Amino acid sequence: MTLADEPAREAGGAFAAGASRTLAEDPRTAATEFAGLVLAAGAGTRFGGGKVWAPLEGRPMVAHVLAAAREAGLGRLVLVLGRDAPDVRAAVLSSDPAALEGVVVAVNPAPERGLSSSLRLGLGLVTAAPPPAGILVLLADQPRVRPAVIRDLVSAALAAPSATLAVVPTYAGGPSPNPALLLPPAWPLAAATEGDRGVGPLLAARPDRILRVPVAGANPDVDTATDLLAIEGSPP
C-alpha cells in the first residue's frame, strides 16, 4: 500500500528558503498540534485477509502504528477501519485495553472503492475544529514506522514555506515515502482524490511544493504473510 510516491525537494535545500509557517510551541512539543490519520480499511487480499490485525510480536500490526503515533506525541488520532472492524477492534483491545483510548474510530462502508475513500472519510474527522497544524497519514500495513521519523517530519514542517503541500521522508534503506505529513494547502486536494493511489498522483504534479526529509532505516510495506515473517524480530 502506498499513499504518496511523488518526487520532492530535500529539507534544507532551495525550497526551504521561502517564508516559513509559525506555530506556538517549539519543535519539541509541537507534535501535539498535529493529528494522526491511520488508514486500516483495506481487505488485505494478497495477505489472505485479516492483515491489519495479524499479530506481530504479540500485537496486531495496526496497534504498532497507533503506538508509534502516540509515542511521537501527536494530538488527535483517527483510525479508519473496513468491513473487518469488529475483528480489528477485538484484536487491538485484547493486546492492550487502553490502545483505543482517545482514538476516533470510523468505519469505511465501501473500502472496495480504494484507499482514497478511507482518506476522504478520515479527513472529514481529523480536520474538525479546532483544525490541526498538519495531518500525518499513516498506513496500518507499515508497522515499523518510527516515532522519531514522525517527529522529524513535524520539525521540518515547522520551518517549511507556507505554500508547502506535504512533508515526506526519504529512507536510506527503502523507497517508501510514508508517512506523509499533509499541511493545510493539501487538504482540498486530498479530499478530491479517487481510487487506490491516495494523494500520490496529485502531489506528483506539484514537486516544487513538497519537502523531503532524509531519514535512516526503512519503512517496509506488509502485503503478504511472507512480508510479515520477514520483519519479525527486526528493529523498528
Provide structural commentary.
This protein is α/β, with parallel strands linked by helices and 236 residues long. It is built from 7 helices and 10 strands. It has helices at residues 61-72, 85-95, 115-126, 147-158, 187-191, 200-204, 225-231; strands spanning 9-10, 34-40, 55-56, 59-60, 77-81, 103-107, 134-139, 166-171, 180-182, 210-215. The model is unreliable at 4-9 and 12-20 (pLDDT under 50).
Rg (C-alpha, Å): 16 Å
The main sheet comes to: 8 strands, mixed
First CA to last CA: what distance? 18 Å
β-strand amount? 15-25%
Helix segment count? 7
Number of extended strands: 10
Give the helix proportion (percent range): 25-40%
Chain-wise SSE layout:
Blueprint: E1 9-10, E2 34-40, E3 55-56, E4 59-60, H1 61-72, E5 77-81, H2 85-95, E6 103-107, H3 115-126, E7 134-139, H4 147-158, E8 166-171, E9 180-182, H5 187-191, H6 200-204, E10 210-215, H7 225-231
Parallel strand pairs: 1-10, 2-5, 2-7, 5-6, 8-10
Antiparallel strand pairs: 3-4, 7-9, 8-9
